[in-house]
Write a structure and sequence with these properties.
The radius of gyration is 17 Å and the shape is globular. The chain has about 240 residues and is an alpha+beta fold. The N and C termini lie far apart (about 45 Å). It is built from four helices and twelve strands, in the order βββββαββαααβββββ. Strand 6 (about 95) and strand 7 (about 100-110) form a beta hairpin. The protein has helices at about 75-85, 125-130, 140-150, 150-155, and strands spanning about 5, 30-35, 40-45, 50-55, 60-65, 95, 100-110, 170, 180-185, 195-200, 205-210, 225-230. It has one domain. Helices cover about 15% and strands about 25% of the residues. A six-stranded antiparallel sheet has the order 2-12-4-10-7-6.
Length: about 240
């Protein structure tokens, strides 16, 4: 599939319905800030709710989910698109694993559209899409690799760089053009908007708070995000 950042598609900002969460930050089990352009890794237990907040707006958050019981089972965009019949994620979307099982469901969303096909930026993709001199720039793949070497959780569950697979781009707007090309469009998120999931199994969450400076997914200015977790409803 070809990549494009120059041609503008029609109706590229169509979004899913929006819904606020009834949960408040004051009742969260944990609340952390992930700095602009940095990685994060953590656990979310079955039934818990996990929220990613776009604090300043127009920030892409590359995310991979793994089964905590067996990290070889991980988020699969192919299974998610096939089973849901949706190319973009939004309120009510279920996220499926490589084993065809539901890993999580989006229970609240104030953005309305999240990308499944744009992938994670890397030194190679920056070179192909933009220019040779972009190769040394920091990327989401760099973040994923860094996280798997710096967080003890990765060693604890046996995750390594070979386990970096396909990711979701929360808040990122990547329409598919009629010719099959991907268009990296301006974001439709804003300051304080968020996406919240309910975990259907115990999860390991790996995040790159995208450092990309070459397309508008971050408004050419990466910013921090907030990550909150609430206890399971039955706990």
């Amino acid at each position: 599939m070809s990549m494009s950042s120059s041609a503008t598609p029609a109706n590229f900002q169509l979004s899913a319905p929006l819904q606020e969460s009834p949960l408040t930050a004051s009742t969260a089990l944990s609340s952390e800030t992930c700095a602009a352009g940095e990685p994060w890794m953590g656990r979310v237990k079955q039934g818990q709710r996990f929220r990613i907040v776009d604090l300043e707006g127009n920030q892409a958050v590359d995310t991979i989910f793994y089964s905590a019981a067996d990290p070889s089972e991980r988020y699969s965009p192919a299974e998610t698109i096939r089973k849901s019949g949706q190319l973009y994620l939004g309120l009510g979307s279920s996220l499926y694993s490589s084993e065809g099982r539901i890993m999580a469901t989006i229970s609240a969303d104030t953005c309305g559209r999240h990308d499944t096909v744009g992938g994670a930026c890397s030194c190679e993709s920056n070179t192909v899409r933009y220019a040779m001199d972009k190769r040394p720039m920091h990327s989401c793949r760099d973040n994923f690799m860094t996280a798997l070497t710096m967080f003890h959780l990765a060693e604890e569950v046996g995750l390594g760089v070979r386990d970096i697979g396909a990711n979701i781009n929360f808040f990122m707007n990547v329409p598919v053009l009629p010719d099959g090309a991907l268009y990296f469009a301006d974001g439709i998120s804003g300051a304080g908007k968020y996406v919240e999931i309910i975990a259907a199994m115990d999860l390991i969450v790996l995040i790159s708070n995208c450092p990309q400076l070459n397309n508008p997914c971050n408004g050419y200015n990466p910013t921090p995000i907030q990550l909150l977790t609430w206890k399971a409803d039955h706990a």
